[in-house]
Amino acid sequence: MAKNIQSVERAAAVLRVVGAAGRPVELAEIAQALDLPRTTTHGIVRTLREVGLLTQPNHSTAYALGRRLATLGRARLDPNDIRSLTTNYADALASHSRQAVFIGVPHVRGVAIIHHVFRPDDREQTMVIGAVVPFHATALGKATLAFAPSAAGGGLSLERFTGRTVRTRGRLDVELSRVRAQGFALDVGEHDPDLAGIAAPLRTVGGLGVGAVGIVGTVGTMVGTDSQPRPDLVGHVRDAATAMSRAIVAGR
Amino acid sequence: MRPLSHEPVVAAIDQGTTSTRCMLFDPQGQTVALAQVEHRQIHPAPGWVEHDAAEVWRNVTLVVPMALRQGGVEVGDIVALGIANQRETSVVWDPVSGKVLAPAITWQDTRTADIVTTLVQAGHDEQIEAISGLVPRTYFAGPRLRWQLDHVTGLRDRAQAGELLFGTMESWLIWNLTGGPDGGVHVTDVTNASRTMLMDIETRQWSPRLLELLDVPASVLPRIASNAERYGTCTTLLPGVPVTAAIGDQQAALVGQTCFEVGQAKCTYGSGAFLLSNTGPTRIVSSRGLISTVAYQLGDDAPSYALEGSIAVAGSLVQWLRDSLGLIDTAPQIETLAATVPENGGCYIVPAFSGLYAPHWRDDARGIIVGLTSYITKGHLARAVLEATAWQTVEVVEALRGDTGMDLDRFVVDGGMTSNQLLMQYIADVLDQRVERPLVSESVCLGAAYLAGLTVGYWDSLAAVRDNWHRAGSWRPRMDPARRAIERAGWEEAVRRALADCS
Ligand SMILES: Nc1ncnc2c1ncn2[C@@H]1O[C@H](COP(=O)(O)OP(=O)(O)O)[C@@H](O)[C@H]1O
After folding, report:
1. Residues near B165 by beta carbon (within 8 Å), at least 6 away in sequence
2. Which CATH class for the A79-251 domain?
3. CA distance B337 to chain A (A)
4. What percentage of chain B has pLDDT greater than the value 90?
């Protein structure tokens, strides 16, 4: 059997000691309980505090279990909760932008569509909830990936959909840092040659990305003659993302 | 949901069964703000469901400022306020102190069964139906007032002394908004009044005969007004803003969905589910358990009527799974749970918590779960919960078809449950008809806002608001007919047992 990693074992032991005490515990007590040198214990405790699993209540020197520990098992938001909490904002976004609205969350090979509001022009459209769109070729995918870097899991397949699809990791990384700097993502004919998308991240406590909201329309309606996305549409998408993020945080 | 630069807006309050909402709308009927707070559901005994009307009013005072802040709107920007409310819930209060004098008895409560049975056994049911248009049932508000007068100490004396006011939720809110003890307006609207079993459906005034039969003094009742007129002006919360619409929530949703033509219908999925179909100026008497009700009346215009298929328990069964069984943390998570299994495993739930409403109307039916085997998981239960809403929909749609001889052109839906994809698909599957959702799924608020805005000229006509309706989503049927027939047989067998098990 492979050897266990000692520092992980020790970190678990520290958490158990603090949890069992039922009150804030001083560093010296933890070190004593585990029969470890103070310096070693301090390194573990400090790291645990930095990742939010321990806290020092009221700026004291003693340590208690962090709040994040309690929510660890519920870290993943239920997509059906997200849809329900954001549905009114999604409707408002569709009516202000006059475009179709999509909400997506990370999935194994891309972004899974969990909500779809039709373009409000009463033409025939088909609900695509449940479909998965690629990370690298859609605004929704890029906005998700930029703020939840682990979303893509191990690898990304950079499949070519059109002549404009991003096909190298290097270019995608440049694109993602631009998304992070600007707060929204763009796709102009990269997945479907006739369509463009604008998307912004949905973020929960601590700025963690949980998915994205975006609009999709014809290139002509979404992008100006200067080949920049229409600023009013970008504004609507970003406002909606902010309001939805707030609703998600409040609703948990 | 974006700050506006002091563009005039219309405000609406939806005082619902589970929560109270305030929304603001612009001229295109687009949402400018939405704030919502839930209130407690109080279950003091089996079959009893109460609300605290004081808590509800407090929630109104919370959500209105929240909506204003959210929309960046000032009181001066609001041209009118409309109110929609849960119907048939009865509130009694003291006109001098403004205090509520008893818990509000909600529309789901069945404690008036004895009062109703006595009326029927005395042979008054035909006369009651002839005057009110309603077959006597625990569902309506009048018997609740009677129960309160009979059982709450001192209430009858107060009524005699003129120290008691009665109303459904819209009356309670309007009275508080327009001054309360200090000149508050005591008024109800024709849709809410039509559900008391105290109103003459032809004259649209309180019926002296019905008041006599139920032993209810006229002095405690509000004045009956139309759904769109100026009842009074807010002295608090939105000072200076006129209150210009009041309408029961289901009728409000009919207006919000712009079902203004004969034959147009909508179904709202909230705590209960309610299919309403506009029958225009003609009142159709159902032979299949549908309720013939006032749809809306604008000022002095002639009223429009509707046929209504009432389903007592829809979303409240989801709440039961959440609050009483603890199988889910939030209502939307029922969809996640239901998706863990491909079908119901032979399990059916008939949620007759308040008896069964349309088309069965059996106050004595009791809820059952059939098909329990060791194979059944909580996923199957979750499916059975959602499917119960779908099959009850089929029953009321078929009753409507039987009464009117017409198929529904379109099946449009709204309400909290419509964000559930699995449910909406299942309804399309078992109805074998496309289901459509509008861009503003808060049709109740929107309907109240439309009427309030029409009264003050913010909108010109019903036709003018019709163009605001847009399809936001739709679900097409894709169930194999053989499968549908099997499921239907399973549901019908379960209903038979729910009815047979009762004495
Ligand atoms: N995603 C969902 N799936 C199933 N039921 C839901 C969902 N969201 C809300 N509900 C149910 O819908 C009801 C709330 O809807 P709402 O339209 O606010 O009703 P009301 O006006 O009667 O309070 C609750 O009973 C809740 O259990």
Report:
1. B92, B93, B94, B95, B171, B175, B186, B220, B222
2. alpha beta
3. 10
4. 79
